[in-house]
Amino acid sequence: MNHTLSFRGQITSPLNVPLVISELIEIADALEWRWERAEGDWSTPPTAELVHIGSNRTVVGHLGLRGVTLYPKTISGPLHFLFDAKGWLRSPHLVAQIRSGEKEAATAFVSVRVDLATRRVYATVIHLMHYIKKRFIPHLDVVDPTGFWETNNDDALDLLSSDTPSVEDGEQEPIARYEPSRFVPSELVQLVEKIIQRKMDSLN
């Protein structure tokens, strides 16, 4: 199974980016996810480029991005909700790849690896993206390897079960308790789902 969740889209107005930041930080704090805010200068064109440091490629230079990056527990990489001056979703690597011609701006997706994601956290991320689509990015395009984005059916997440380790004894994830058969939602997950649902209801 492909272990990459990809998404792209343009916010209805760049003026709404501060609201995106504040709302995502509120949700991340409730989930106890780490987050980082970006306040880049949109008036200056990006100069970002990828440079090789050992076996890794690192982004250097001006990004020109504003938004917030979330670090969901058990997700392998950062979840970027960063916007360029025109309101397009971007990541630091994507900015550099577009500048170098490696990626086309019009078709470029932001991607995050999800091979270590527990089903509960993965479902929460997808619900969060549905909220963002309804609230800020009406044409958000998501490529979900599980199909959960399209179906909202828990059975779609069974595709993760053969690749995703269960959280057992030791350092238990407080928001992502995993069982092979079904979810066991924690109070914290329920709290965040209520936050998202309340926000969704306010849009109706």
Characterise the protein shown here.
- It is a single chain.
- This protein is of the alpha+beta class.
- The protein has one domain (4-203).
- Helix content is 30%, strand content 20%.
- The chain has five helices and nine strands; from the N terminus they run βαββββββαβαβαα.
- The chain has helices spanning 17-31, 92-100, 119-135, 148-151, 187-203, and strands spanning 4-8, 34-39, 49-53, 56-60, 66-71, 79-83, 89-90, 110-113, 141-143.
- The strands form three sheets. A four-stranded antiparallel sheet has the order 2-5-6-7. Strands 8-1-9 form a three-stranded antiparallel sheet, with no helix packed on it. The chain has a two-stranded antiparallel ribbon with strand order 3-4.
- Helix 3 packs parallel to helix 5.
- The longest helix is centred in the middle third of the chain and has 17 residues, at 119-135.
- The radius of gyration is 17 Å and the shape is globular.
- It starts with a strand and ends with a helix.
- Mean pLDDT is 80; it is low at 161-188.
Shape: globular
Total count of strands: 9
The rounded Rg comes to: 17 Å
Mean pLDDT: 80
Oligomer description: single chain
Q: How many angstroms separate the termini?
A: 36 Å
State the strand order across the main sheet: 2-5-6-7
Provide the β-strand percentage band: 15-25%
Main sheet specs: 4 strands, antiparallel
Q: Tell me the number of structural domains.
A: 1
Helical content stands at: 25-40%
Write the H/E string, N to C. Answer: EHEEEEEEHEHEHH
Structural class: alpha+beta
**Distinct helical segment count:** 5
Low-confidence stretches: 161-188
